[in-house]
Specification:
This is Dihydrofolate reductase family protein. The chain is 24% helix and 28% strand. With 177 residues, the protein is an alpha/beta fold. The chain has one domain: Dihydrofolate Reductase, subunit A. NADP nicotinamide-adenine-dinucleotide phosphate (NAP) binds next to strand 1, helix 2 and helix 4.
């Protein structure tokens, strides 16, 4: 199973946090939708999923309360066993095993920071898509590797692409060595 970590970073290199004072750029949201359509799934942290669901207007949700159509959505949670309309997994491995069993070959890791760091710490990331948003952030979250194993790990730049609205996309391959 190939995994793609998809994240927005700020121009000063933080893991971007969105909210009413810093809404996500429509170009980044469109890119996320395109990646999710291509993979047919996404894995998301419980906190980010609850924010996503609450941010969607009710008319756009289906009967199970999901605004995401027929995508296979896996919510990572240690606390919850089930949520309507999605599969709940208790660990990164369990999430990937579930999508494999459903026939997916690529999994999209959509955030937030805890979820991305859980996959990075377990060396379960094959590709990274960073969308750099034109904003500087005064607070900050970070993406981190397991410091007991890595001080640095090189990645291979595959592509750079402007998405419009000042957003630039960087795509990297991560080797599993
Ligand atoms: N920059 C971006 O691309 C991007 C994307 C998405 C979100 N965000 C930002 O990220 C922030 C939210 O991220 P967050 O770090 O607070 O939360 P999160 O990663 O969305 O969700 C955290 C929750 O996921 C579950 N979880 C995490 N690691 C786990 C593991 N190893 N095993 C099982 N469950 C696990 C836990 O759920 P339980 O508590 O239920 O056990 C944990 O509380 C917001 O500021 C949002 O704006 C940014």
């Amino acid at each position: 199973m190939k995994t793609i970590l998809w994240a927005t970073l700020t121009a000063n290199g933080n893991y971007a946090q969105s909210g009413h004072d810093n809404p996500p750029k429509k170009e980044a949201l469109g890119d996320f939708a395109a990646h999710a359509k291509a993979t047919g799934n996404f894995i998301v942290g419980r906190r980010t999923f609850e924010n996503m669901r609450n941010a969607s207007p009710a008319p756009e949700r289906d009967a199970a309360g999901s605004p995401f159509g027929d995508l296979d959505i896996v919510v990572l949670s240690k606390r919850l066993r089930e949520m309507p309309g999605v599969h709940v997994a208790a660990s990164p491995r369990e999430a990937l095993d579930y999508l494999s069993r459903k026939g997916h070959e690529t999994a999209l890791l959509s955030g937030g920071a805890d979820l991305h760091n859980a996959f990075l710490e377990e060396d379960l990331v094959d590709e990274i898509v960073f969308n750099i948003a034109p904003v500087l952030e005064g607070k900050g979250l970070n993406l981190l590797l397991d410091p007991n194993i890595y001080s640095y790990k090189g990645v291979r730049l595959l592509e750079t692409k402007p998405l419009g609205g000042g957003v630039v996309q960087l795509r990297y391959a991560v080797s599993q060595d």
